[in-house]
Design goal:
The longest helix is centred in the last third of the chain and has 25 residues. The protein has 2 domains: 93 residues, Nucleic acid-binding proteins (OB fold (Dihydrolipoamide Acetyltransferase, E2P), Beta Barrel); 178 residues, no CATH class. Helix 7 packs antiparallel against helix 8. A hairpin with a 2-residue loop joins strand 2 and strand 3. The radius of gyration is 22 Å and the shape is globular. It has 316 residues and is an alpha+beta fold.
């Protein structure tokens, strides 16, 4: 039965096409080998086990046809795969059903970002932000914002950025003392170096972190790139240091990777809207998978279960 991953239930049989996010051969406690895979469609991801020591792990980013039974392990759904094979040219499957994508095209997001930069009063901010985007290159068109959590989708980085910009506009209206263009610039720049942090194919499927990502990370690399961009366009002074601080502090606390806490208002706002946008995107996906009136499984990134309310009083 070909059904969306988000609708799979325990003891349900599944047969259909899924995208390989990751696949490895592992050894169990009894010494036997098995395949551990994470397979996905655009609605969600499910961990899969194939208890066959001879099976070759399929390549990440490829499409396979699988057949198996949905089971439950440690409170999470898991697919026990009985058979699988690579998809071929004769198979009639819709790739758009398999690849999580941002709701808008890259052009829509880029136009919104460019229109925001055009409104900057500061020419120095315009120069730095445009140079940072140039250094990021064309990969930004399809790059995701994360491997598994928020905006883990094709064009997710642009989706995350423009969503934050929209939130920033409301906050700037609510708190007029803020330097609006500095906050907008920080939003556009804060995650750009994720492009060098993760290994992603053009479908937005992240297989792992890069050496640069593991040894340096997007916060530190972002500060280095900003210094390079400022030199390229001849901008110096406090504005460069402020942007560097916003990048390096946008995770808020050392436990989340920021060596410095936000130390001026625009940096503080950047941290909060980054967290808000990430959590709302993740919760939106969970609400789409959980029926009204039901609880989700425990979400490890939030350390809690979520409830999908009956927003329509008559529905309950």
């Amino acid at each position: 039965m070909d059904i969306s991953v988000s609708l799979l239930e325990t003891n349900m049989r599944f047969e259909g096409f899924l995208l390989v996010r990751s696949a490895d051969q592992r050894t169990g406690s009894n010494g036997g080998k098995y395949l551990d895979m994470n397979l996905t469609d655009r609605t969600g991801e499910i961990n899969c086990k194939m208890w066959d020591g001879t099976a070759v792990p399929p390549q990440s980013g490829t499409v396979i046809k699988v057949r198996g039974l949905v089971q439950e392990y440690n409170g999470r759904k898991q697919l026990r795969v009985e058979k699988m094979r690579p998809a071929n040219d004769m198979d009639a499957f819709d790739l758009s059903r398999l690849v999580p994508c941002a709701p808008e095209t890259p052009d829509v997001y880029r136009q919104e970002i460019e229109a925001t930069i055009d409104r900057f009063a500061s020419e120095d901010l315009k120069k730095i932000v445009r140079e940072m985007l140039r250094l990021a290159g064309d990969d930004i068109e399809w790059f995701p914002a994360a491997q598994r959590l928020h905006h883990a989708e094709r064009t997710g980085l642009l989706h995350h950025t423009t969503s934050m910009l929209r939130t920033a506009e409301h906050i700037i209206q609510a708190y007029p003392f803020l330097h609006g263009d500095l906050l907008r610039a920080g939003v556009i720049l804060h995650d750009l170096s994720k492009i060098t942090e993760m290994k992603s194919d053009t479908l937005g499927n992240v297989t792992d972190y890069t050496r640069d990502g593991l040894l340096v990370g997007h916060l530190v690399r972002g500060v280095a790139k900003l210094a390079e961009a400022a030199r390229n366009v001849g901008v110096t002074g406090e504005i460069v240091v402020l942007l560097e601080h916003m990048i390096i502090s946008h995770h808020g606390i050392p436990e989340y990777g920021s060596p410095k806490p936000p130390m001026f208002p625009e940096a503080e706002v950047l941290n909060w809207i980054d967290t808000l946008d990430a959590r709302m995107n993740e919760m939106e996906g969970i609400m789409a998978r959980v029926p009204a009136g039901a609880f989700s499984e425990k979400i490890w990134s939030l350390d809690r279960r979520l409830y999908h309310p009956h927003y329509d009083e008559d529905a309950e």
